[in-house]
Write a structure and sequence with these properties.
single chain; 7 helices; seven-stranded mixed beta sheet; alpha/beta; six-stranded mixed beta sheet
């Protein structure tokens, strides 16, 4: 089986309605013209990445307007939609949450960002996430055919144990919607994607917003897909675009046979325990 994944590197503007329309149009193009069966949006794709903007677009899942738009797009075009992330309002708390919608428009998974970030290589913290959001406490997976897929959001990519837990759960593809600033992206974006892919002998996809030089946090862009050998098989520029990659799943078996590290781990000395799912 081959999964054709489309990363939508969307340019985020001030208007939530315009962002949702743009996202819907690009989902349509990803399916109808690019023939993708899994479509991914960036982190916080429906509003600029500032405290005031994010608070203003907070909504419930699955009743809110962004959830409804993603559900309708998934159903209308018959595609799996990984809805980047939005600000979820629940029980008086705000979460940075990723939703996944099936080809029938049904909600397959909701993932709340586990690792919250207050750091920036540029020296400026645009959004102090630990003050704005409540951290999630659960992993989230969904399946396409027989392929199990794990979800993270941005800062989660820096924690190898987190990705390894997904591999332990049987995931063959890890998807991270992300907003990464330019200095951080230049240093670590590709390096982290390759590391997570090599560590876990899995496919890894990072999806960024397009670069906006007028934004308070200027996104790095360069959404990419890495194969289990650690090779970048698709990479975007910094502009709005759709990046499409064919994930040849039989490559997983080939890599794991050639480099059988999972059978060589010393469980007598160390092991990873997944505590929540």
């Amino acid at each position: 089986m081959t999964i054709k994944i489309a990363l939508i590197q969307l340019r985020v503007v001030e208007s939530k309605e315009k962002n949702l329309k743009n996202a819907t149009d690009l989902i349509r193009i990803s399916k109808k013209e690019k023939e993708a069966n899994v479509v991914v949006l960036p982190e916080c794709f429906n509003a600029p990445y500032t405290v005031d903007s994010l608070k203003a677009v907070a909504e419930t899942i699955p009743e809110g307007p962004t959830s409804r738009a993603l559900s309708n797009a998934a159903r209308d075009y018959g595609v799996y939609v990984v809805g980047g992330s939005i600000v979820e309002s629940s029980g008086g708390q705000l979460y940075n949450s990723c939703t996944v919608w099936g080809p029938e428009g049904d909600l397959l998974a909701t993932y709340r960002k586990v690792h919250l970030c207050d750091s920036s290589l540029s020296g400026k913290t645009t959004v102090p996430e630990t003050k704005l959001f409540t951290a999630g406490s659960d992993f989230a997976t969904f399946t396409v055919g027989e392929t199990k897929i794990g979800l993270g959001i941005c800062w989660d990519m820096r924690f190898p144990e987190f990705a390894a837990a997904y591999r332990t759960l049987g995931c063959d593809l890890l998807i991270y919607p992300a907003v990464c600033d330019v200095p951080t992206g230049e240093q670590h974006w590709e390096l982290l994607a390759k590391a997570r892919a090599l560590d876990n002998q899995a496919f890894v996809a990072f999806c960024s917003p397009a670069r906006d030089t007028h934004a308070k946090l200027i996104p790095y862009g360069h959404s990419l897909v890495v194969d289990p050998w650690g090779t970048v098989i698709q990479r975007a520029t910094e502009f709005q675009e759709i990046v499409v990659a064919d994930l040849v799943l039989k490559e997983l078996t080939h890599v794991r046979h050639r480099i059988p590290v999972f059978g060589q781990k010393r469980d007598d000395l160390y092991e990873l325990k997944v505590k929540s799912i």
